[in-house]
Amino acid sequence: MRGLARYLDDIELPRMLHAAFVRSPMAHARVVQIDVEEVRGMPGVVGVFTHGDLAGVGPIQAIGPRPEIKSSLRAVLADGKVRFVGEAVAVVVAESRYIAEDACELVDVEYEQLRVVANARAALEPGAPILHADLGDNRISRIERSGGDIDHAFAAAAHVVKVSFHHGRVGALPLETRGVIGDWDAGTSTMRVWNSSQMPHLLRALIAAPLGLAETQLEVMVPAVGGAFGLKASVYPEDIVVPAVSRLVGRPVKWVEDRYENLAASSHAKEIDIDMEMAVAEDGTFLGVRAKNLSDPGAYSMPPFQAHHESLGSVNCMTGIYDIAAASYVAETALTNKAPLGVYRGVGWTPGQTVREVLVDDVARAIGRDPVELRLQNCIPDTPYDSVIGPRYDGGSYRRSLELATEMADYRGIRERQIEQRNQGKYVGVGVSPYVEPTGFGGRIGNELGYPGEYYDTASISIQADGSIYVMSGLNSQGQSHETTFAQLAADGIGARIEEVRVVQGDTKSTPFSAGVYASRSALIGAATIGRAAHEMKRRLVALAADMLEANVDDVEITHGKAFVRGAPEVVKTIADIAAYVHWGGGAAAVDLEEGALSVSSSAAPGGSYGNGCVVAVVVVDIETGKIQVEKVVSVEDCGTMLNPMIVEGQVAGAVAQGIGDALLEEHQYNEDGAFMSASLLDYLYPSTMEIPDIAIGHLETPAPGVPGGFKGLGEAGVIATPGAVLNAVADALSPFGVRVHSTPLGPSKVLDLIDEAREAMSGSA
Amino acid sequence: MKPESFSFYVAESTQHALDILAQEGDDSKILAGGQSLIPLMNFRLARPAALVDVCHIPGSERITVDNAGVRFRCSVRHRDALHSNEVNAVAPLVGQALKWVGHEAIRSRGTLCGSTAHADPAAELPAVWLALGAEMVISGPHGERHVPAESFFKSFFTTDLNADEMLTEIRVPPAPDPSLRRTAFQEIARRHGDFAIVGAAVVIDLDGSGRIAAARVSALGAGEVPMRLRSAEAMLVGSPLDDQELLENVEAEVRKSVQPPGDSHASARYRKKVTGTLVRRSLAECAETPSTYEGML
């Protein structure tokens, strides 16, 4: 880390202005009138705009991809109504951000308070205020599915164990907040936009119509991004308003989200209630699983992923690594007066995985079985397996990863020491959380999981006259080191030196179309597109070298940037020699001139693959203070062939840290009146290095059968699996009191409440 | 998240700072590290018209240790106190508490006097000053006055300081016999470096026979100001420190005596219970070992 990356806020354009937004302090209100007169004359203020001033701009459209999901619209500035605290009502453009913020305070908005929908349950009650009158009611999606004979499974069960779980509302909290610069070029009718986005092409596609522009009139550029984690994969009002006001004032306009805006108005995530029950045979066999959930997506459905994503994701993984013959779910979503829910690393899977694994531990305790043995008894084979309710796993190390992770954590040893330690007042617990997750979300997996849609990504490679190599990809890094892995893929495929490869990303004008970086897509799609292009480039280089060396193409080899005739490595042609031959020596005639001798584009629509692994957490709970110390985390992952072990381990560590935050610390809180209670980092607690233990990482490699190179994604696994492991470890530590853990986050105050409640319940039943 | 515009002064002496305060009036504020004030200004929760930076006053960074105890002048940074061997030799409680204050970057900028004058009820240092019987030296237009820590903290973020005054020094009196003094500091926070949910500071002076001659116990996060727990102190005097039953009785007494607020990080009930636990544990820590400074150096 040397601080040399250039982020959006480092960009300074000539004559650039700064925007600040007036945001709603109300959770639900009619906007009676907005008085901007006092602001217009302020020195340094160039413009102030409300919804009425942005005629023809917007709205943001969320088009339900299935009949069970309602389509909805969102005005880019409040159109007569505000629906959550932090919603943008007006924008001021000024010579500095300071002046713009001073001016925002003087915009006088008159609100008429409306009744607040404080949570998703309240949203569905008869007589609840309706957030969007055109939707009829607040239920924005309701999806049902079942597979196998679920009624029979429950009828045949010796035991039925049930949990009602609340997963708290969290946020992705990237170190760099969002930001947008709009720069309208009236001379060419072109809009240049810089946006700290995960998906430049998709963003361009989604904001072009609201801005009234063709995609060719819109250039989206993404500079270095300081983390995103899904928060930067939605379309927000500011993405449209900032370019729109640049066009109105005729000058570049910059807006960099501050931390309050980031906490209050960027996407939140993962809030959901899930009821899940398991039918279990006398011998511990899982017969069936049933789930009903209700997600709280806040006030708007945000494209492209929309409001139903959390609720559908959480049931898609309901059978996990277990061989269960019957399953059914009802997944619902109801709008409330909170910030909109977006996607955050492990979307849907985090609460779904957590609830399932907590339920499995509850089953184990209920029937007196060791939780690891019970899991192994019900585990699917490592060969491809079709689950009864959607996912069709393509083979992995489902069983082996559970065995390896528990070995690495010394599971047996912990169990042996646990009772003795309890007698000394030390409450140690161990929890496991094996997972299988869809990665590289392509058409095949998307359709299996109920997200209809196909993807088609392209990458290109071109070799310059000096032999240096461009890889052009629409998959832009937010810190995942595409600069390294994509260069590696290209260098390996071509036979070039990695030092010669330069990866170009984050620019819709110069890079080919990609749907973007989310859902653990980059490794698979990068490999498929760049790998194919590199393979074709190598074929051409070999043909050219054969021409130069007067040899047969079958005898020419190319490696580390040098081509030579096999058996005669003393005479070499470097890639620079070959490039010079093409560009200056007429060599292009040796290959297909029409295609562009040293320029290759390749496309792919990979179907995706399921990654898997297992997280084990060991915790110590101080039963007097409720303080939980995570002593150790073991993460075994199987991401198929590993592209780069160092980057794999970085992904694991970061995601495990976010998983610990999810389980123990992080929560966006609203009170019953819809007031936002987590407006600063004093209130929204992310894990620091002090809360993260050493993480032991184990690697297993089961190559993905349908993916070039055999790669699978893994960036989300830690956030998916860690919370379940941590909660199970806490419940295990506190099992002498009969504590069950059915909500996140688990702060010390809640831990003491759980112990007290469990003690009271025990003494009541005794 | 930008502050309103304000005037900025760098004071060259205490008198200079006082003159500026007098001239700028009630809307002026002393800047002494800015680790709380600047964020409040960025949120526009504080809107001072003028800031007077006192960290460049010559000699204001000085720590003096002599027969009269320890004196921290107004711009002594947390880090400098934490790393001072002299301070840790005579008043180890300061270092025991300071290692809980924020993170390295915060400790490098923040000052003892600044944090004390800010008077967050969950901050570590105010409770430390109560337990050590420290004295606040306040300079104002009418000269200097000395206020015991106990009368200094009035309510949430409010002290005995008037708008035209500044906290120029904190004085910690010497222990009657340093070899017979035991101190401990414990707190619970959601994360290391956060303001505490609750915490406890304990100073015990033993007599020659190992019984408690004097006890000062204070709590943070348990009310709108840091507080002495006098009923608990009274129970301790005259007893040996390693009396388990006594410690448990003190714990119960503390739980009875505090009336803490609840918030999103912990309920009132939690704070009540855990304040008792931490006082008991702090006393047990005093019983186990003579206090030495164990910092995170």
State the gist of this model.
With 766 residues, chain A is of the alpha+beta class. Chain A is 30% helix and 26% strand. Chain A contains 19 helices and 32 strands.
**N-end to C-end Cα span of chain B:** 34 Å
**Largest protein interface, residues of each chain:** A-B, 29 and 26 residues
Determine Rg of chain B (CA atoms, Å).
19 Å
Total of DSSP H or I helical runs spanning 4+ residues of chain A: 19
List the helices and strands and how they pair.
The complex is a heterodimer of chains A (766) and B (297).
Chain A: E1 17-23, E2 29-35, H1 37-40, E3 45-50, E4 60-62, E5 72-74, E6 81-82, E7 88-94, H2 97-106, E8 108-113, H3 120-124, E9 139-147, H4 150-156, E10 159-167, E11 170-171, E12 179-185, E13 190-195, H5 200-211, E14 218-221, H6 237-249, E15 253-256, H7 259-265, E16 268-269, E17 272-280, E18 286-295, H8 309-316, E19 326-334, H9 349-367, H10 371-378, E20 385-386, E21 392-393, H11 398-408, H12 411-423, E22 427-439, H13 443-448, E23 457-463, E24 469-473, H14 482-494, E25 501-505, H15 522-549, E26 556-559, E27 562-565, E28 568-574, H16 575-584, E29 599-604, E30 609-621, E31 628-638, H17 645-664, E32 695-700, H18 717-733, H19 748-765
Parallel strand pairs in A: 1-15, 13-14, 18-19, 24-25, 31-32
Antiparallel strand pairs in A: 1-7, 2-6, 2-8, 3-7, 4-5, 9-19, 10-17, 11-16, 12-13, 12-15, 17-18, 20-21, 22-30, 23-24, 23-29, 26-27, 27-28, 30-31
Helix pairs in contact in A: 8-9, 9-18, 14-15, 15-16, 17-18
Chain B: E1 7-10, H1 14-24, E2 28-31, H2 37-42, E3 50-53, E4 63-66, E5 69-73, H3 78-82, H4 85-90, H5 92-98, H6 104-109, H7 112-118, H8 124-132, E6 135-140, E7 143-148, H9 149-152, E8 153-155, E9 158-159, E10 166-172, E11 181-188, E12 198-206, E13 212-220, E14 227-228, H10 230-236, H11 244-257, H12 268-288
Parallel strand pairs in B: 1-3, 2-3
Antiparallel strand pairs in B: 4-5, 5-10, 6-7, 6-10, 8-9, 11-12, 12-13, 13-14
Helix pairs in contact in B: 5-8, 10-11, 11-12
